[in-house]
Design a protein that fits this description.
mainly alpha, globular
């Protein structure tokens, strides 16, 4: 049984969001804990999804770099003012903006904006859009 890319992306978002609160010391442990506690009909399909695995571990590996970029790009915003929901969305999108993901910039940013509208205050979507645009430019500059 297959699931939509949107469902896969929401799963990665949920896992990254959980990491903001989790005492799990490693992403691998967080990944296992998330799926141990999943009882949905798609849990096994999601756990075996290459997209879910690659994106979660890729975003976790880029987490520190993403936070550095966020500090540079979110001028006037301190990290503690940014909701944990927005932070998880930005970490997911930052990985999707990286060359390793193979996802286009427009899709990565649009999907992040949609997640922010669904899971955070709708007004936050403009902030997420603006910050990710700046992060995308910074990431391109780093690659050059």
């Amino acid at each position: 049984m297959s699931v939509s890319r949107r469902k896969e992306r929401e799963t990665v978002f949920e896992m990254l969001f959980a990491m903001e609160f989790s005492p799990a010391p490693t992403p691998q442990e967080e990944y296992e804990i998330y799926f141990e506690n999943s009882d949905g009909k798609d849990a096994e399909t999601l756990k075996s999804s290459d997209y879910v695995r690659d994106t979660f571990f890729g975003a976790a590996a880029l987490s520190e770099k993403t936070e550095e970029l966020l500090n540079e790009c979110a001028i006037g915003w301190k990290r503690d003012r940014i909701s944990k929901v927005s932070l998880a969305i930005i970490k997911l999108a930052a990985y999707e903006l990286s060359p390793e993901s193979g996802i286009s910039e427009n899709i990565a940013i649009n999907e992040a904006v949609e997640l922010s509208k669904k899971y955070d205050d709708e007004k936050v979507s403009a902030f997420v859009n603006a910050v990710l645009g700046k992060i995308a430019k910074a990431m391109k500059a780093d690659d050059e």
